[in-house]
Amino acid sequence: MEVEAEIDRLPIDLLANIFVLFTSFTDLAQASGVCRKWKQGVNESLAWRQNLSFAGWKMDDDSTARLVCHAHNLTKLHIPRSRWGCQITDAGLVRISFAKCVRNLTSISLWGLTGITDEGVVQLITRTRSLQHLNVGGTFITDESLFAIARSCPKLETIVLWSCRHVTENGLFALVDKCLDLKSMNVWGTRVPEECLNNLHILSPALQIKV
Fold this sequence. Notes:
This protein is an alpha/beta fold. It has helices spanning 2-9, 12-20, 25-32, 36-48, 61-70, 90-97, 118-125, 143-152, 169-178, 194-203, and strands at residues 51-53, 76-78, 107-109, 133-135, 158-160, 184-186, 208-210. The chain is elongated, with a radius of gyration of 20 Å. The termini are far apart.
């Protein structure tokens, strides 16, 4: 009881400052389950984070969306394929799209997520307003996603389409035509013909196209 009394005297701000230092999402989940006050501290620590990376963690739709929805000040979101097999699907991206932070995200990485399609990507992208860097390499997106990016991301500067074998020159031209700040595009492993890349260079001479 004496230990609990000491814990009760810790202010929420101090608890949140401690939890910000946690790098393990498992530890955060366990801390959140200690008591109501610790849960509030964990939630506040997430609200302070500007960068959230799930690299190396086995995440699912529910756990990922729940964490992102608490990260109100987030600007960088990294959800790559993990070595244990990330289980993020379109359902997870749809839930994430309703998070308050999405409008302020400047960087999103969905690299290698084979469980997502245009459905989830379009839903997420159309709710962004500040996106500058996007990595959707190794996914099965098509031109539908590229058209949505072109419409919704006028500030886009870099995009990675590494091994996106279902995108075509139509989608790439839409990006270059609408995203006037675009500086770099990685299209290694796509099926886009060399003639298309040459035409993109004519349309945007300063664009760096990585093949």
